[in-house]
Amino acid sequence: MDRLLVLVRHGQSEWNLKNLFTGWHDADLSEQGIAEAKTAGQRIKAKGLTFDLCFTSALIRAQRTLDLMLAEVGQTGLPITRDQALNERDYGDLVGLNKDDARKKWGEDQVHLWRRSYAVAPPGGESLRDTGARVWPYYINRIQPHVLRGERVLVAAHGNSLRALIMALDGLTPDQVVELELATGLPIVYRLNADSTIASKDVLKG
Fold first, then answer.
1. 8 Å CB contact between 155 and 56
2. Rounded-to-integer distance, Cα 91 and Cα 204, Å
3. Is the pLDDT of residue 206 over 80?
4. Could you give the CA distance from residue 134 to residue 155 in angstroms, rounded to a whole number?
5. 112 belongs to the catalytic site
């Protein structure tokens, strides 16, 4: 039984390109993001991986990444569940601000805390812990049961929703997750044991 779970952060978005805090703003993929999504699909196909069903967020950049990957894999007709539980963290008052301008206004250390820390939330937004509070139950109740039944699952989501999920999967501490960076369009391949622990993890870097 394969128990396959593949996680992919969406390709570069138009707001990533502009260095803006995006959060729940529904920015589309940039040209580079489209290319990254296609490359992710090609890497998945090169490994011979196929899927039974997919999950993604309620935001277009993750949905388009998923569609582009599936086109490359040759599996465009798969069942897809879209849910805002997998959305990027809400950056609150920072949404739409340039990250460099935010550093000038609040300081490098404060902005780094908002972006990477576990428990510190930006004004009006979510911390990574807050994001995990919606991602973890969704994974346990909606995604993990399919994987443990032997179904092969592809998830296209966001930097922080996936950081929260990987924190739980890999058993990272709040201090360790601060160092976790996820590249856009880079598939992370997990295989689970029957008890839901990790049997193997592979990052498809080409």
1. yes
2. 29
3. no
4. 15
5. no
Q: Which residue matches tokens 């950056």?
A: 91
151 flagged as catalytic:
no
**Domains, the chain, ordered by start:** 4-203 (3.40.50.1240)
How does pLDDT run across 45-98, given as a tens digit for each residue? 999 999 999 999 999 999 999 999 999 999 999 999 999 999 999 999 999 999
Nearest C-alpha neighbor of 7 from the set 48, 49, 35, 46: 49
Place of tokens 């899927």: 51
- The residue annotated as part of the active site, out of 10, 72, 126, 158, is 10
Closest C-alpha to 13, from 159, 165, 161: 159
In this structure, the chain runs to a length of 206
Please state the separation of Cα 180 from the chain's center in Å. 12
- Annotated catalytic residue: which of 25, 36, 72, 88? 88
